[in-house]
Amino acid sequence: MTVVAIDGPAGAGKSSVARGVAQELGFTYLDTGAMYRSVALAAAEREADPAEVARSLQMQVGERIVVDGRDVTQQIRAPEVSEAASRIAADPEVREAVVAQQRRLLQDGDWVAEGRDIGTVVAPEAEVKVFLTAEPQERARRRAAELGLDPARVLAEQTIRDERDRTREHSPLEPAPGAVVLDSTHMTLADVVQRIAGLVPGTRR
Ligand code: DC
């Protein structure tokens, strides 16, 4: 069992990079942000306590994100869900329940897991830990292009969420001890993928 942990702020390229590394190594990709997003969406729709939702929600997190039997892959990317996810992710009870689900998943098999606290909290024993970052303007530009939104608005909202993710009391965003810090601002996706795949022991590179 091997875990590659990729943490970092929004827009650093974690999802594309983690997918690429998983494909390169034949590992399974885990998008942990999708789990916080799913909890946020379900809690808003049900007007329910997010911690309660986090403890009971059935989530399938693969190519498609399926929550209680419903495909929410598109819906969880909406800006209002991003905002709600960032808020509920600061709740320690929500984190406890979501982290427990993540640890269960990572028990078996080989994974590339991406998020904010994989190397620090979810899988501190991960074989490879990467903290992937990029300059804020570049991160906003990438997100805006991906979602077809205005870059200035994305940058403004990103700044607020970054600040909240970084300064929250529970599991703030920070590099794990021993993490390789990679700045992707001037790197291509393929370069970042190769760089990380090359860190995994037992791969022929
Ligand atoms: O990576 P993302 O944008 O899909 O994450 C959505 C929100 O969830 C974001 O505000 C940070 C939070 N999150 C977290 O706190 N811990 C994780 N492991 C993954 C995401």
Describe the structure.
50% of the residues lie in helices and 16% in strands. Strand 3 and strand 4 form a beta hairpin. It is α/β, with parallel strands linked by helices. It has a single domain, classed as Rossmann fold. Strands 2-6-1-7-8 form a 5-stranded parallel beta sheet. The chain is globular and about 45 Å long.
Major sheet: 5 strands, parallel
The CATH architecture can be named as: 3-Layer(aba) Sandwich
Series of H and E elements: EHEHHEEEHHEHEHHEH
Report strand order across the widest sheet: 2-6-1-7-8
Per the principal axes of the C-alpha atoms, what is the gross shape?
Answer: globular
Q: What portion of residues belong to β-strands?
A: 15-25%
CATH superfamily: P-loop containing nucleotide triphosphate hydrolases
Kindly identify the CATH topology.
Answer: Rossmann fold
Bound molecules: 2'-deoxycytidine-5'-monophosphate
Number of domains: 1
Fill in the keyword field for this structure.
single chain, 205 residues, alpha/beta, Rossmann fold, 3-stranded antiparallel beta sheet, 9 helices, globular, binds 2'-deoxycytidine-5'-monophosphate
Summarize it.
With 205 residues, the protein is of the alpha/beta class.
Fold topology:
Layout: E1 3-7, H1 14-25, E2 28-31, H2 32-46, H3 50-56, E3 59-61, E4 65-67, E5 70-71, H4 79-88, H5 92-106, E6 111-115, H6 118-122, E7 128-133, H7 136-147, H8 151-167, E8 180-183, H9 189-197
Parallel strand pairs: 1-6, 1-7, 2-6, 7-8
Antiparallel strand pairs: 3-4, 4-5
Helix pairs in contact: 1-9, 2-3, 2-4, 3-5, 7-8
This protein binds 2'-deoxycytidine-5'-monophosphate.
